[in-house]
Design brief:
Number of helices: 1
Order of helices and strands: EEHEEEEEEEEEEEEEEEEEEE
Structural class: mainly beta
Oligomer: single chain
Strand order of the largest sheet: 1-18-17-16-15
Radius of gyration: 18 Å
Distance between the termini: 38 Å
Length: about 270
């Protein structure tokens, strides 16, 4: 096991310096929303698959990961118009933990006051090494922890009263955390989904609005946006990437609503 890594508390700039508070703009930005159509072969998905789905994230420009229970995940590229491909977990999910399997054998392991990810290389005897992170400075209720977003170098946690974003994009862990009520008011309830923007920022969505946390010059700034989803605002899961400079959602989007998947391409889901 790797030694625990300390991470700075509070919003951090790209060079790791801690800021006091990000600025906030009260203007609501109007984004162009995606036009969604029903994904092909929805009827072929089993009720068990849909019930066991815990999270859907767009982790790169063309990769969407569907996370299931017990560490099972599926990699989906709608542009290829092929069904999601199952990715086998690199380890057995320990009792009381959540295992989020990613491409290339990577994963996040989340449990009681525990946060780790796959470490490069191989341990003694073929063991899978895990890089553990210091969670003592992460605020919130770990008994209610929920993963909102998991990618190779970024994870976003909802800990009831607190949101924590851990990023290791540059090789050095940096942590931003803030109240789950956010400084930007969200219409339509609390946060139900999150992800990354094209400018290496983050978005946090309720059913009707999106809060954006991105760099504005040398400082972080909050902004609020409307991303219309037409008849699909009552989703349970959404995977997307946002381009704030163009005020639009980029590439394909995957929405899980009711018992069906919807996307821009309508590509086969099974």
């Amino acid at each position: 096991m790797a030694a625990g890594l300390s991470v700075p508390v509070g919003p951090v700039t790209s060079d790791g310096d801690v800021q006091t508070e990000p600025s906030t703009t009260t203007t609501t930005l109007d984004f162009v929303g995606p036009t969604l159509v029903e994904a092909r072969n929805n009827e072929a998905l089993t009720p068990e698959f849909k019930t066991n789905l815990v999270l859907v994230n767009k982790v790169s420009a063309n990769e969407i990961v569907l996370f299931g229970k017990d560490g099972k995940s599926w990699l989906y590229n709608p542009a290829a118009d092929t069904p999601p491909t199952q990715m086998d977990p690199a380890i057995v999910q320990p009792d009381g933990f959540g295992l989020y399997t990613l491409p290339e054998g990577k994963f996040w392991l989340v449990g009681p006051n525990t946060l780790g990810r796959r470490k490069a290389g191989e341990g003694a005897g073929g063991a899978v090494p895990v890089e553990n992170f210091n969670t003592q400075t992460i605020k919130g209720d770990w008994t209610k922890v929920k993963v909102l977003y998991a990618a190779a170098d970024t994870i976003i946690l909802h800990l009831d009263s607190n949101i924590a974003v851990l990023s290791i994009r540059t090789g050095t862990p940096s942590l931003s955390q803030f109240s789950s009520t956010l400084p930007i008011a969200l219409d339509g309830g609390s946060i139900v989904a999150a992800g990354e923007t094209e400018s290496n920022g983050y978005w946090f969505a309720s059913k009707e609005t999106v809060a954006l946390l991105e760099m504005a010059g040398l400082n972080l700034a909050w902004a609020r946006a409307k991303v219309p989803l037409a008849a699909h605002a009552d989703y349970s899961q959404i995977a997307m990437r946002i381009d704030s400079s163009k005020k639009e959602v980029t590439g394909d989007v995957l929405v899980f609503q009711g018992d069906k998947f919807w996307s821009v391409s309508g590509a086969a889901i099974q």
